[in-house]
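Re: your question about SH3b domain-containing protein

S., sorry for the slow reply, the queue was backed up all week. Below is exactly what I fed in.
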Amino acid sequence: MSRKTVLVIVLFLAAIAYILYKLIFAGKSSVAGLKVVSTPVAGIYLDEKFIGKTPLDSRHPAGSFVIKLVPDDSQSSASVWQDKITLNPSTLTYIKKELGQSELTTSGEVITLDKIGDDEIEISVSSTPDAASVSIDGLEKGATPINIPISEGEHDITVTSTGFIGRTVRVKAVPDYRLNVDFQLSLSGEQLETPTPTPETDTQTGEGDQLSKPYVLVNETPTGFLRVRFDASISATEVGQLKPGDKVPYLDEKSGWIKIIYAEGKEGWISGRYADKVE
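Result:
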């Protein structure tokens, strides 16, 4: 299967961006940098306010926003991409997106810096889909999401997942900062031709609307299903699967995971990234 994975190389030198923006933003601690590139060209909206078209290199007040990329070509079949981002003071947020016909065929990266101090250097890697394999400079480090110390300097971060097109980004880590890289992988052509089958799971969704609140609603996922695990960890055993639209009883939550009843008498944990608690 590894031969079916194509690596897409992109470049982002976080150290250079950090130094540049520190110089520009000296005395302006509430200002953040935003750089966005996309294929095809797209209009960019922050909290529904149009701020320009890709490629864009601009400054904005620090804070949390909903960013949206809308393909500029009316004849394009590319889909709209939207997500929540946090613009951190005096640093650059870098977004690169290759917009596909749907979320499943859209790929790219969102790269940010978080100040942690004490000369520490860390890297945090997340992905859609989750539980993707992470390699740093050719050495396997685990599965997403992952947060580990890293040495100063340039590193190649590669994320791969069966049935998806892998991506590699080159970054430069700097002291006092955590480098966050959020990958979005697109389905490979073979997977698009042959959709991933979803095993039947005895979920309690037939009368979902009658479930007592709180309950959990499963959202759309890149794979077309959501894994249920024995514990709140991506390394825990998979015990079942849920489909988008499924509604199941809510039990508990911790660290981004939600505990649910996925079948009669059976409990498990799902990623809160692809599910909402309804109260």
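Residues 2-191 form a domain with the Immunoglobulin-like fold (CATH 2.60.40.1120). Residues 193-202, 205-209 have pLDDT under 50 and may be disordered.

Happy to talk it through on Thursday.
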